[in-house]
């Protein structure tokens, strides 16, 4: 019996679509070397865009490193931390954030 992956199925589906040298019957394991399975620079950019769209986030430039895209575990770690750090929908997300206190209450009448 295969162990459950530490990421959602949607992540694996997106990742698989960009790994041209990964056989359909080969599992995506956490330490799989992505470059060995076809993740070149062009595929990395395409994967980045697909993940940002799917998870509604932006990966900061400082995280766009070879280490981030080395293995599924490394990549998911970055995505997961960014998803966890996203502000909740009850928090202001625009330039008026300074008008609210830390509880989301308006400070300017």
From TrEMBL:
PROSITE patterns assigned to the protein according to its UniProt record, in alphabetical order: CARRIER
One Pfam short name: PP-binding
Gene3D superfamilies hit by this protein: ACP-like
Domain named Carrier: residues: 5-83
Highest taxon of the lineage: Bacteria
UniProt biased composition (Basic and acidic residues): 95-109
Region described as Disordered: spans on this chain: 87-109
Protein name from the UniProt record: Carrier domain-containing protein
């Amino acid at each position: 019996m295969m162990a459950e992956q530490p990421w959602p199925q949607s992540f694996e589906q997106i990742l698989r679509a960009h790994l041209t040298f990964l056989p359909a019957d080969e599992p995506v394991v956490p330490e799989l070397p992505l470059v060995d399975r076809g993740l070149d620079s062009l595929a990395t950019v395409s994967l980045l865009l697909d993940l940002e769209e799917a998870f509604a986030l932006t990966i900061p430039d400082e995280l766009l490193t070879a280490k981030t895209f080395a293995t599924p575990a490394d990549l998911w770690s970055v995505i997961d931390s960014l998803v966890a750090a996203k502000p909740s929908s009850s928090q202001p997300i625009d330039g008026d954030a300074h008008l609210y206190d830390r509880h989301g209450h308006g400070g300017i009448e």
